[in-house]
Queue: 2 jobs
Job 1
Amino acid sequence: MKVPDTPENMEICKRFCGPCPTFQENKLMDIEPHALFCARGPTKKTDCANKGCNCPECEVFKKYGLTGGWFCLHPPKEE
Ligand code: SF4
Ligand code: SF4
């Protein structure tokens, strides 16, 4: 099931992507699509340093049965 791009999901995402070292180190909020990557697709930033991922802890991740993580770097696999 595709994750909806809603304000509610963005609020949840901010709690997990927000403090993520990959998010902070690469300043992903400054570049589209900013966050909620599982719904909006990966960041437009090209040379991202991978520093870890909080997605597996996230309520959106659990609710939509997502697997993997690092959705700022690559989209979730479709079921
Ligand atoms: S699964 Fe990851 S990208 Fe999606 S809302 Fe949660 S923290 Fe954000
Ligand atoms: S998708 Fe995962 S790796 Fe990327 S910023 Fe969010 S929590 Fe971090």
Note: The chain has a mean pLDDT of 95.
Job 2
Amino acid sequence: MQPMTLFALCGSLRQTSINKATLHALQTLAPASVRIVLDEDIGLLPLFNPDIEHLSHPAVERIKRQLAEASGLIIASPEYAHGITGVLKNALDWLVSGPEFVDKPIMLINTSARAYHAQQALREVVTTMSGKLIDDACVTVPLLSKTPTADDIVQMPDVATALTSGLATFCEAIHSLR
Ligand SMILES: Cc1cc2nc3c(=O)[nH]c(=O)nc-3n(C[C@H](O)[C@H](O)[C@H](O)COP(=O)(O)O)c2cc1C
């Protein structure tokens, strides 16, 4: 059977980003039947401008293709000043008008319980874009006060269990939507 491919976006460009480490940990924790493709170049996207939307740009083409080829989208992002980070919102703005986002199952990972403003905003944005938010698959894990690597996260039993079970719920929801 073909593995299920999921596309992941991280809303932080930091090299030692907790959100990026969490997505890398999820790649390790995922079963062999699930492949998670993490976009590492979200920062290469030009600033969104409707005037240049019709022009071809490699980073834009790539993100659209990766999303189109995936069965679902996973987003892990920090909150900046109670809002969605600029880099993530910019990426989402590039995806507003295309067909790739419509009905795409979405799982949100929040690495800090206190960062609820951005999560609320993100929920509003992705549902407005006609994504299919899978509520039961969305996970909040308490990682903020730590600076964990992906390997550290894999070794944290409670966090690893929460991520694995969120991913399993997400994959089940995708199967049942087919
Ligand atoms: C510019 C900036 C603004 C931030 N604003 C908030 C905020 O409003 N709420 C919050 O909980 N954390 C806030 N933080 C803390 C980040 O959530 C925290 O540093 C997080 O680890 C960043 O995610 P990352 O490790 O994936 O880069 C802010 C951090 C930065 C750099």
Note: The longest strand covers residues 4-10.
